[in-house]
Every structure is written in C-alpha cells, then in structure tokens.
Amino acid sequence: MNRLQVYNENVTLRDIVTHLNLDVIYEGNLDLKIKIPSIYQIGYELIGFFEVGEELTTYIHIYGRKESRYLARFTPEEREKIFDNYFKYGFPALIITNESIIFPEMIECAKKHNKTVLKSHMRTSATIREAKFFLSKELAQEKMLDGYVCLDVMGIGILITGYEDAKLGVTIELLERGHRLITDNHLIIKRMAENDLEGYNFFDKSTMDSHFFLDNPKDGSKIDVTTLFGIKATRKMKRIDMLIVLEEWDEKKFYDRLGLDEVTEEFLGENIPKLTIPVRKGRNLAIIVETAALNYRLKAMGLNSARYFMKQSQMLIMKNKKKQGERNMNGDKLLSVMQLKRQFNLKVLSGEDRLEETYIKTTSIHRPSLALAGYVENYKDEAYNGVQIFSKAEFKYLDTLPEEMRIKNISNYLQFKLPVLVLTADVEVPSYFLNLVKENNTILCRSSYKKASQVIANFNSFLETYFTPSISVHGVFVELYGFGVLLTGKSGVGKSETALELIHRGHRLIADDLVKFVKDTSGDIMGTAANLPYFMEIRGLGIIDIKTLYGLGAVRINKKLDIVIELKEQEREDVYLTAVDYQTSSTEIIGKDVPKMVLYISSGRNAAAMVEIAVMNLMATKLGHDPEKLYKEGLKRMTEEEREVLGVDGEES
C-alpha cells in the first residue's frame, strides 16, 4: 500500500512561537494551523502595491529593519493607513525581527484585524532561515512504501526492492558486513527540502525495548536485527541517495556494463538514481551493493571510478585547489558571477564580458521593492553587494509609475553597481529597462525558475554554503558507525595511530592533522580536509595515502561532527579512570555545542577499541538506552547476599 500525505496539518503558530522562542506582541489566533512551509519578507505592501496571491494569503510574513526605517519617514496617520490596508489580507502572522521598530499604529491595526504579531530575538536573515528550516521539517511531504528495504551502506542511503528471494539474503549479508538497517517494511519517505529525501522507520524506535526486525516472506517469521547484530546495525532514519532493483537474471536482456547512462526513479518529486542488478547463482550481491555505494560517492565527486584511478587523481587535486574560492585584499571570500551562472545555468542578457571580474560578496538576496519606489537609503547605508531578483511583480509595479519617475527610480537604483540582476523565467524584459541596464553596464541574467521564491530558496542555499563561517582544528576526523568523531590531544599522544587502527577496523577517514569545519544551512557542523585529502602522517612511516592503501570505502569527503574525543596520557598507572560524563560535557565549535569526552591512554588500553565503545555508547543514549541507569536498577533488585557474592558495593545503588 502506498499512502501519500501531502502535508502534516498539526503545526500551529503556537508551535512556531515555542520553537523559535518568539515574544507574543498581539496574540490573534495562535492555534491557527500552518499549511505550507513558506516565509515572505514584506516590501511592496508598505508602498501600497498589493499583488494578491499565496504570499498575501498563506505565507508567514517577516518585517525587518529596512522596512521599519522606511516607515519611520511617515506620520502616524500615514502609517495607520498603510497598516490598515496591509492587515486586511489573510496571511497567518507577522514576525518582527529584533532590530526593527514597532510602531503603535501597527499594534492597533493588528488588534483591529485580529492579526497575530510576534517578535523575534534574531536578525532578519536568521529569523527567516530558522523559521523556514523548522516549517520545512515539520510540514514535509511524506509517503509510505511497502516492499522496500532501506539501508545505510557506507554512509549512502540505499533503497532495495525487486526479487524477493534475493532481497532478504542480501540485507542480512550487508548487516553482517557492518551496514545498518532503517526498515524493510512500512518505510516512510519525507521530502525535507529540494534534493533531500529521507527515509524513516514507521515504528517508534526511541524507547529502550524497541527492536528492529526483518520479515521472512517464506514462513512469516521475524528476524530480530537488534538482538543478532546489536544497535550499531540499526538507525531510525537516513537520507535516500539511490535505488537498487534486484531482478532475476534474463539471458536475453542487455544489462548496463559501463555505468554511463543515468537512470532515475521519481519519489515525491525527487529523482533518485536507479540501478538494476541482475541476480543469479555465484554473484555476491552484498559486494555489488557496496561497490554501487562507493561508485555513487565517487560520482558525487564528479568522477567515474575507472577514469578516477587511472587518469584523474592529479587533476582532482588541482580542481579542488581552484574551487577553494577567490579572496580580496582583506581576506574576504568572493564569488564571481561566472560561478553563479555555471551553478544555476543562467542565461546572460547583458554584461557577459564582466562575468569573471564581477564578484558577489554576501549571502544577501534582495527583491528591490523599496528601491524601485525611490527609497534607496538602505543601499547607501548597507552597501549591498548581493544578488538582485526581479519577477513579474517588480515590472507590474514599475508599470504603475509615471514614465519620468520610473526612469529616475531605476537609474538611481542601478547607480550602486550591483553585481547581478536575475530575472525569473516568465519575465518579459521591457525595452526601457534593458536599455538602462546596458547603459549602466550591469549584468542581467535569466533563471530557469518561474517563481521568485524558488530562485531565492535555491540561491540562498548555495550562497549560505559558499560563504559559511569556517574554522580549522588540529586533530583527526573519522566516521564511526555513521557518527563524525574528532580525535584531539597534544602532539605525540597517538591520534593518527588510533585513527589508522580504526580504518583497519572498517571505519573511515575524513581528514588528518588539520580539519576544516563549516556550519551548513541547517546548523550542522561539517568537517573536511583543510588541505590535500586522505593523507596521514604516521611516525616511522611518513606520509601515507589512505585512499590508495585502503580504497574509497576507507575515506569520505565530508561528515557532520557528532562528538569530540580528547586523547590524554594517564599520568598515574595506579589510578583507574572509568567515569566519563560526555552527555553534559561539551565544547563549542562555530557557535554550536558539541558533545566531548576524554579517554586516557596507557599501556594495556586499546585506544581504537575504547573510541568504538564510546561512540556505540553515544548511539545507545540517542536511541533511549541508559546503561548507567540499568546498572543501578539491577543493583537495587539484588539481595545483600548476591551483592556480597559478586563483590558489589550496595551503596552504589
């Protein structure tokens, strides 16, 4: 049975207030349900220009500093008229950002129209980002699938379907090889964002007694995966990267042997890469699935496996160096308009000769509503160097102005030498506008997206990632059981040697010596190699290439940071250190607290094994297990005689 649920209908304004820690200026209807995850920053409405559509009826509105500064120029009577016209529309709520002015006329009109008004403690860009991320997650499209196995194979989320006799066997073999099960039935897939499809286990797995099972279609029995393979063989959710269809071997059918043709299957509007694997005796399907996962990762790097090993190694290093980005004299990161054009396949209408020499210096994306009305003070004060978006709405508004004022306002706007103007796909450019753009030598491009909200969403994700803050940390970054682990400690304590043994045990290296961390758009801390990737320095051996020695399965391009483990030498051998409180101990990296623990290294203690156990224990706590609590409860159930036999101190309970 496939069940499609378009949106979760349980998110209310009250939920948004709680999650974003908003102040309620006027309550209105806090129990109003939000249907779609869309945010709109007002602009034209304050000029008196209203284009009725979803933005005015269903989007949550944001009111920021530049809007309040614009309104400060008017008298209270004029502001009251503006707000009275604005609050007549059916949008659910207005969120005021922390740097904005709250006018009494706004509150009075909100009460008159019973409109919810909220106050954020964040700046405009942060408020929009956090609200959009929360709504996108809570209101994600979802669908239930039966007949699919969802697995985490080497960090790649894989759906397996098709030939029933082979599906169960390959799943068990992959679990035996250390991969992880999400579910084999009742799979929930959610579209969290563009290019982000995630698979969830339908059943609640947050309690201590919840186990993962595999159904045996032959006799209807169930295989307890948690008992047989341990909690490290399971996880509650995984991003879905590819689909594998198992098919009984057909001698007459041609099967792709080159892997050059890209075949996809659509799930909730996302096209997932699809492989059809023929099944016959003598074929080790687990190895083939693992190879498919490795090849997917390699393709994500823009390489074909055969060409990569034989011809592209040095070219990849040079390519990565070029992608590090250009910087100005102050060290600020810059993005050329040419890079933006290539990223989104923009069509250039004017200024093609300036693409390489013109730079974007900020993540800001602007719809010039106030500027086209003649209010350009914000451009003077804030020196915008961001992308400018034009849709049909901008030109509809310009058509309402007298010709002389229209030309004057556009000319004043273009004098700021903005890096690039981007049109939505459905805009017909008036000749007067194109002529002014050419006169000012401004770059004008056309996007393939029809809606301004689509352009802003996709550009914002790319720009936030490109300009994200970063930090370099001395240590070794590895992936264990799907967790990103940073090993730190003083020089010579054995970080690289511990990481090398972990790689021997089947774990993966992200970076050695110097690790570069950045904060992505969702707030996660992502780590990658700061310089050349996949090399390690081992005392006595020198520099070694992990990718060449152990293969692509032993390395990753990047990984989310989940825990920091500091390695320290145990100074006194007679002191046995056991207590480690890594649930409350943490360290701050780029403004985010990351769990941290300390492991003491001494003779007879296997550091790699201790790191593995520490990470598995962290996994257990995330799944609702508390070993210390279970231990104390067990002591309470023991009699005094049993404690004496085991030599356990009853006071510990």
Can you characterise this structure?
The protein has 653 residues and is α/β, with parallel strands linked by helices. 33% of the residues lie in helices and 27% in strands. An eight-stranded mixed β-sheet has the order 33-30-29-27-28-34-36-35. It has a six-stranded mixed β-sheet with strand order 10-8-9-16-18-17. The protein has a five-stranded antiparallel β-sheet with strand order 1-7-11-12-15, with no helix packed on it. Helix 4 (76-86) runs parallel beside helix 5 and helix 15 (403-414) runs parallel beside helix 16. The longest helix has 18 residues, at 305-322. It is globular, with a radius of gyration of 29 Å. This is HPr(Ser) kinase/phosphatase. Residues 11-135, 336-463 form the HPr(Ser) kinase/phosphorylase N-terminal domain. Keywords: ATP-binding, Kinase, Multifunctional enzyme, Nucleotide-binding, Serine/threonine-protein kinase, Transferase. Residues 138-312, 467-629 form the HPr kinase/phosphorylase C-terminal domain.
The number of helical segments is 22
Percentage of residues in DSSP E strands: 25-35%
The assigned structural class equals alpha/beta
Task: State the distance separating the first and last CA atoms.
Answer: 50 Å
What is Rg? 29 Å
- Outline: globular
Helix content: 25-40%
Number of strands: 36
Please give the oligomerization state of what you see. single chain
Largest sheet: 8 strands, mixed
CATH architecture of the largest domain: 3-Layer(aba) Sandwich
